Each structure stands twice: as structure tokens, then as C-alpha cells.
Amino acid sequence: MARYTGPEHRIWRRLGVESAPPWVRVRRETPPGQHGSGRIRGGKQSEHAKQLIEKQKLRRFYGVLEKQFRRYVAKASRLQGVTGHNLIRLLETRLDATVYRLGFASSLRAARQLVSHGHIEVNGRRCNIPSRAIELRDRISVREKSRSLKAIRDALEMRGNVLPPYLALDPARMVGEMIAVPERSEIEINVNERLVVEFYARRNVRA
Predict the structure, then answer these.
(1) pTM score, whole prediction
(2) How many domains does the chain have?
(3) For 87-99, what is each residue's pLDDT tens digit?
């Protein structure tokens, strides 16, 4: 399955504008299509439909393909604790998500491109793998020759001093660090992860 590269606002009009990421500007709240204004998103839905929508919200937010997403679900189910919380934490500690949360990019898609194009270092070494798992005390930085990029400087200026409590940032040096393990309550995403876990439990997803 190819990664979707079209306009994100169409996806979130279909899934629900109330869950759209902060970088997506949705001008219309109705679902897309010729008859979108006549459809009621909040109408009666089966439990399966609700689970599917929540799964799509979470997968689309982080830009993860279905096969990889299933692996995250399987891994989350093996960890101690609440499976849904584990799943959110695994996704949130990807390198591209961390780059976005630090303010080096204006969106997760832009963060993924920064990583893929070699502009980001982890613990002083260049890393071009967006899915790399970031661990406690890992240091994430913009490569020295990339610090003058307008896109990065604009993103940092737009983000200001807003940081999740599990990250620290030296904006002048463009160096961030994961200083704590993210808690579910600290991760800003409007999704019911319990329904996501139930969706895959019905399909007996295993590692």
C-alpha cells in the first residue's frame, strides 16, 4: 500500500474535524464528496464502524501504513500496562513524531521529510529512519549545516515555547532530549485508543 500524499483535510473531513491534527486546516466540516453535506457523521454507527474510524484516526495522525501499524499494535499488546496507552507511546516516540513535537517541523509529514532527507541527528549521528524509536535520554538535533533552513526556523518560531513535559529543548542550538517516558495524559491526540485495540483484538493480531 502506497503512502497517501494527497490533501490531508479531505481525510479529516471524513474522519471528523474535531480530531484533525493542529497542522490541518479544514474549511468545511461536512464529509467530502458530492453528497457530503447530506451525510451525518454522528449518526447511528455499528461498533465495528466506530472502531474502524478510531483506528484510521490514529494511523493517519502518525502517517503509518497499515502493515507497520499492525506491528505496533502487536508490540503494544506484549508490553506491561494498558495496551492502548502502550500503542500511543510507541507511536509518539518515533523519531518523526519527536522531531515534530520539538518544533523542528510544522507537521508530522514535514518532520518525516526532514528525517528522510538527512537533516536530523540522534545522539550525534545522522539518522534518516523516521520510525526509529527514541528512548529516554536520547538527544535529537538538527545537523549543523541544516540549521539555517528557513522551514526549520519558521517552525521553531511558530511553535514558541510550547513543549510536552517529556521533552527538553535548547532552541539556540536546535538540540532536544527525551527527559521522561511520555504518559498518555501528556500526549495531545483526540482518539479513543481502546476502540483501536478492540478493532485488532477481533482480528486476533499477534506479533
Answers:
(1) 0.81
(2) 2
(3) 999 999 999 999 9
